[in-house]
Design goal:
Number of helices: 13
Largest sheet: none
Order of helices and strands: HHHHHHHHHHHHH
Distance between the termini: 46 Å
Number of strands: 0
Radius of gyration: 23 Å
Low-confidence stretches: none
């Protein structure tokens, strides 16, 4: 076999990598560019105009798009509450299982993966009786929908955090810190969480992306979020719906860049 022979499983060459990145980039870019071009169209008469973008921020048309802006606010609240549930319920549970109850790791994984195997419509049917109790206890505010979203994002958040946990010897780190006199709170805050930062940030980003794109649960439980408002507005003003969809994509993209920037920063060091 010659030295130039291609080995199975070897790293692709520079040309192959650029080709793959170009094809993947085009797959993502073409729909986005088409959406952008659509928002500048001047109806069926042809030509292009900024009227559709300007109209969204025109004070005289506030009442027309008030529902859409309220839906954006609702989705933002849902994203914050959902991420809070992940960080304050799932993350401590995974750390506790990893350190103190390793035999329960498979059980926790099974429980967290279950929601991805259940269709959204079936999940809503099961959640409907539970939500009748939730409404009585917490009221009918839109943020209560985050309890359902917290279940929906479990498989994705679990995988992101577990990948970081698997790459860190948490038992050795925690025992070393404890042997030096650190309390469990210091071990968690100053030793474990900095090492799990990438997974935590990835889980947060995935949770935000899932919440911003979720439609079925909100629609069937009669709650208003960004997706349900976009569907309603698109029936009368498709330009506004596409513009808000583009802004949601831009927000997630900027969030991805921010999280990537924060995740690449080493604790105690400043980026240059």
């Amino acid at each position: 076999m010659t030295s130039n022979a291609v080995r199975i499983g070897s790293e692709p060459g520079r040309l192959a990598r650029r080709t793959i990145l170009t094809v993947v980039g085009l797959i993502f870019a073409i729909p986005i560019i088409s959406m952008m071009e659509f928002t500048f169209r001047d109806g069926l008469g042809g030509g292009y105009t900024l009227e559709h973008w300007v109209a969204l921020f025109d004070p005289e048309q506030n009442s027309k798009y008030r529902q859409l802006f309220q839906a954006v606010q609702n989705s933002f609240v849902l994203a914050v509450v959902t991420v809070t549930i992940i960080l304050f319920v799932l993350l401590p549970t995974m750390i506790l299982v990893q350190l103190q109850f390793p035999k329960l790791r498979r059980v926790l994984e099974f429980i967290c993966i279950i929601p991805i195997t259940v269709p959204a419509i079936v999940l809503v049917v099961g959640l409907a009786p539970v939500y009748s109790i939730v409404v009585r206890v917490f009221g009918s505010s839109v943020w209560t929908l985050a309890f359902a979203y917290g279940i929906t994002v479990l498989p994705y958040a679990y995988r992101a955090i577990q990948a970081s946990i698997s790459s860190v010897d948490m038992i050795t780190l925690s025992e070393a810190a404890r042997s030096l006199g650190a309390s469990w709170l210091n071990v968690l805050w100053r030793v474990l969480l900095p090492n799990l930062r990438r997974g935590i940030l990835a889980a947060s980003l995935i949770s935000v992306a899932v919440v911003l794109g979720e439609y079925t649960i909100a629609s069937l439980l009669n709650r208003q979020n960004l997706q349900t408002a976009l569907v309603q507005v698109s029936k009368s003003d498709p330009y506004a719906a596409v513009i808000f969809a583009l802004m949601a994509l831009a927000f997630v993209f900027l969030l991805l860049l921010l999280i990537g920037r924060v995740g690449s920063t080493r604790p105690g060091r400043k980026t240059t």
